[in-house]
Amino acid sequence: MATQSVDSDICIVGDGAVGKVAALGLSQQGLRVTLLGPAIVSPSVSEDWDVRVFALNHVAHDLLDSLKVWGALDHARVAPVEAMQVYGGTAASDGKLGFDAYGAHVQELAWIVEDKNLNQALDEALKFAQNITYVTGRALRMEVTDTRASVQLEDGDQLTAALLIGADGAQSWVRGQSDIGLDYRSYGQQGVVTNFACEKPHRSVAHQWFDDDLGIIALLPLPGQRVSLVWSAPDHLAEQLLREPLTAVAERLYGYCSEVLGHLTPLVPETIKAFPLRLMRPHSMIAARVVLIGDAGHVVHPMAGHGMNLGFGDVLALLDVLAQREEHRDCGDARVLRRYQRARKEEITLMQLTTDGLARLFGTDLVPLRLARNLGLNLLDRLPVIKRKLISHAMGK
Residues 49, 195: contact at Cβ < 8 Å? Predict the structure, then answer.
């Protein structure tokens, strides 16, 4: 078969949610966009609840709304988070911290959205988008000149653009091809995810328990009397959880959630998955004619649920610097890319330091630090001004 060459203003490698949102936003600026993803597999039609969910904040909500994607979600499958309770353990002396939408002067703190629901809405929006060429295939090699970046695919096709965006996840091919160094540390944990029905109504409250031995347990509200489990479990425990029936996992959780949610019942069909937890800090989010967004540019501990929100923040910053660039600068101009990196540095660094610091603090075996940590939770719970600032930051305000 004859090979082809596709030229555009911007080429995005990676068609996950962050890559799709970037494509939609850039195309709305009138830019020609090529979106490279793997071969399309027709999704199976299912009403099962996806075990992979995101806690989207107000920045994500407003970005999706501006792209006409938020309204396209199946809102019967979206759950608002109106309050959050954080516990230092199961004992009353372990400390407790609460946040609520009323105190933040909003109706919702966040929204729990399934990965499947989000991507289906994005796919529908892409069908009607102008200026987007969707290409399937696998990237083989990358070359950069003073004026263009090019990607050659395994089938011989070539994609060229003024700017190449790496939106291809934690194991980013684009990052590797750009020789961007990486600081990496495993937390020795896995994120174990599944869904349950709960005996008592969750009242749109998210609950999170920090256990010194068992990791971090989060139960997030889903529509109806359902909750999504995100358990940051030590590797050895995660392997046990994956092997045992979900009824046994529910029994493990009962000691934590019995008062607020009652008994948990696995949703049918029973599904449980896990993914490794690590801290990944690339030495740069830009290279010549290249920018990184989403997990390609940063991976943080999921305790705050902000991985996807950080990715959408990347998209928002990139859209802004490209819209504000001078007429004589193209999309891949080095000065424009440096503006993007500066725009993202503070928020990403703060999230990395916060989640990493909390993961270390709640994983400590030192009794004095445990006592100080729990006292800190109780003290913070009594300081409304500081709590409001924390809530505003979490919402992206």
Answer: yes
CATH numeric code, 78-112+187-277+367-395:
3.30.9.10
Full-model pTM: 0.91
3-state secondary structure of 161: strand
CATH architecture of 5-42+118-183+278-358: 3-Layer(bba) Sandwich (3.50)
Helix axis angle for 307-323 and 17-28, nearest 10°, is 20
Match 């020609």 to its residue by tokens.
Answer: 32
Evaluate whether 185 touches 301 at the Cβ level (below 8 Å).
no
Domain ranges of the chain: 5-42+118-183+278-358, 78-112+187-277+367-395
Give the pLDDT of the chain (397 residues) as one tens digit per residue: 557 899 999 999 999 999 999 999 999 999 999 999 986 665 555 789 999 999 999 999 999 999 999 999 999 999 999 999 988 766 555 677 888 888 778 899 999 999 999 999 999 999 999 999 999 999 999 999 999 999 999 999 999 999 999 999 999 999 999 999 999 999 999 999 999 999 999 999 999 998 878 999 999 999 999 999 999 999 999 999 999 999 999 999 999 999 999 999 999 999 999 999 999 999 999 999 999 999 999 999 887 667 899 999 999 999 999 999 999 999 999 999 999 999 999 999 888 877 776 665 555 454 444 444 455 555 545 545 444 555 555 555 5
